[in-house]
Amino acid sequence: MVSVNEAKEKVIANAPVLSGEVKKLADALGYVLAEDILAPFSQPSFRQSSMDGYAIIHSDILHSGTELTLSGESKAGQTVALSLQSGQAIRIFTGAMVPDEATAVIMQEHTEVKEGKVLIHEFPVPEGKNVREIGKQIKKGAMALPGGTYLSPGSIGFLQGMAVTEVNVYRKPKIGLLLTGDELLKIGDPLTPGKIYESNSAMLIAALSQEGITDIEVTYAADDLDSTVAALKDLTVKNDVILASGGISVGDYDFVGAALKEVGTEQVFYKVKQKPGKPLMFAKKEEKLFFALPGNPASSLVCYYEYVLPALRKMMGRNDLFLKSLQMPVKYPYAFDGQRDEFLKAMIAGDEVIPLDGQESFALRSFAVADAIIYLPTTQNKVKPGDLVEVHLLPF
Ligand SMILES: Nc1nc2c(c(=O)[nH]1)N[C@H]1C(S)=C(S)[C@@H](COP(=O)(O)OP(=O)(O)OC[C@H]3O[C@@H](n4cnc5c(N)ncnc54)[C@H](O)[C@@H]3O)O[C@H]1N2
Ligand code: MOO
């Protein structure tokens, strides 16, 4: 049996960073850059107005009410910059080319137009006001985004603006999902005594899809060693990470541990001093990782969030591996025997966190409405309202 921290360290230490692959920018949301991207040109690439108004020479404005002669119009998309002489103003719009000679743009709200003249009701006018100079955002050749950047909608937009069409990103892991348990029914089967509808696959597939992982092969095995070994072998052919659900405890029909040994994996740890999810097993074979998740649904999901997710994120090149963690005051008291660290399904309410009713590992009702997990080490087995607790935010 290992501690929660030891288990996390071992998982991270054994998770490999996967190779890179080229993706179209449009398909790269949620991937992590595997190499630096340098700016192919300066941005802006020409002097742009940041306001609708008038391009002027700032030293022409000697007092509020200075009168200039209107001498042309520069509209966004025009490709030739107009020229401007002292004493003149050019009508200009946001995003349009600023004449080379212009040193500022006056917002139209600070002007008045009368018979071909523009009165400037602003003084003094600082040089460069409302002009986006060439390269103000980024200069040609400078680091646009370093390798390791998570591609968000903002990064996709930034790269598209620099006409980047393809990016080298870390590939996402392929997942093999093994469901075990002779009690499991598929939707469509009639509900009969002794049976339950299998739900861990839907839950884990949903959790994986939140990370953009969709290459998932699902297999079922009967509660016997041969069937479990055969399923594990099949799943190992093409997948990087195998998640087995159920059959990892000490019962006579729990074959996942034996099957993992049989297919030649090396066990890294079995059993974590935690509730729920004590019988978690983690093993590896070459670069492939194997998690045997306890079958109880809440145990499976806690183990997924606390151990599997960080491993997957490392494989995808991410730097932020664990769920975001913060300290919050707890709203209600909670006490436990202090034998194993506890992970509690919880809900954030304002600036407090509420441990939900129904913490048993078979029950998902609390998880269904949870937006966080409270982590209580054995040293903190009695909390009272207002005590600070460690809160792990679920991804939304
Ligand atoms: N004598 C002991 N018994 C148990 C121990 C122990 O230390 N000594 N540990 C308990 C703990 S803690 C857990 S957690 C469970 C883990 O058991 P398994 O991983 O072997 O899981 P199963 O027995 O196959 O199933 C447990 C429970 O979950 C339901 N289940 C399984 N798969 C699914 C699924 N895909 N969808 C929905 N529900 C599923 C299953 O029907 C069981 O009710 O062991 C304790 N026992
Ligand atoms: O560890 Mo089990 O997940 O408590 O029921």
From TrEMBL:
<dbReference type="InterPro" id="IPR005111">
    <property type="entry name" value="MoeA_C_domain_IV"/>
</dbReference>
<comment type="similarity">
    <text>Belongs to the MoeA family.</text>
</comment>
<dbReference type="Pfam" id="PF03453">
    <property type="entry name" value="MoeA_N"/>
</dbReference>
<keyword id="KW-0460">Magnesium</keyword>
<dbReference type="InterPro" id="IPR005110">
    <property type="entry name" value="MoeA_linker/N"/>
</dbReference>
<keyword id="KW-0479">Metal-binding</keyword>
<dbReference type="InterPro" id="IPR036425">
    <property type="entry name" value="MoaB/Mog-like_dom_sf"/>
</dbReference>
<dbReference type="GO" id="GO:0005829">
    <property type="term" value="C:cytosol"/>
</dbReference>
<dbReference type="InterPro" id="IPR008284">
    <property type="entry name" value="MoCF_biosynth_CS"/>
</dbReference>
<dbReference type="InterPro" id="IPR001453">
    <property type="entry name" value="MoaB/Mog_dom"/>
</dbReference>
<dbReference type="InterPro" id="IPR038987">
    <property type="entry name" value="MoeA-like"/>
</dbReference>
<keyword id="KW-0808">Transferase</keyword>
<feature type="domain" description="MoaB/Mog">
    <location>
        <begin position="176"/>
        <end position="314"/>
    </location>
</feature>
<comment type="function">
    <text>Catalyzes the insertion of molybdate into adenylated molybdopterin with the concomitant release of AMP.</text>
</comment>
<dbReference type="GO" id="GO:0006777">
    <property type="term" value="P:Mo-molybdopterin cofactor biosynthetic process"/>
</dbReference>
<protein>
    <recommendedName>
        <fullName>Molybdopterin molybdenumtransferase</fullName>
        <ecNumber>2.10.1.1</ecNumber>
    </recommendedName>
</protein>
<keyword id="KW-0500">Molybdenum</keyword>
<dbReference type="GO" id="GO:0046872">
    <property type="term" value="F:metal ion binding"/>
</dbReference>
<keyword id="KW-0501">Molybdenum cofactor biosynthesis</keyword>
<dbReference type="Pfam" id="PF03454">
    <property type="entry name" value="MoeA_C"/>
</dbReference>
<dbReference type="InterPro" id="IPR036688">
    <property type="entry name" value="MoeA_C_domain_IV_sf"/>
</dbReference>
<dbReference type="GO" id="GO:0061599">
    <property type="term" value="F:molybdopterin molybdotransferase activity"/>
</dbReference>
<comment type="pathway">
    <text>Cofactor biosynthesis; molybdopterin biosynthesis.</text>
</comment>
<dbReference type="Pfam" id="PF00994">
    <property type="entry name" value="MoCF_biosynth"/>
</dbReference>
<dbReference type="InterPro" id="IPR036135">
    <property type="entry name" value="MoeA_linker/N_sf"/>
</dbReference>
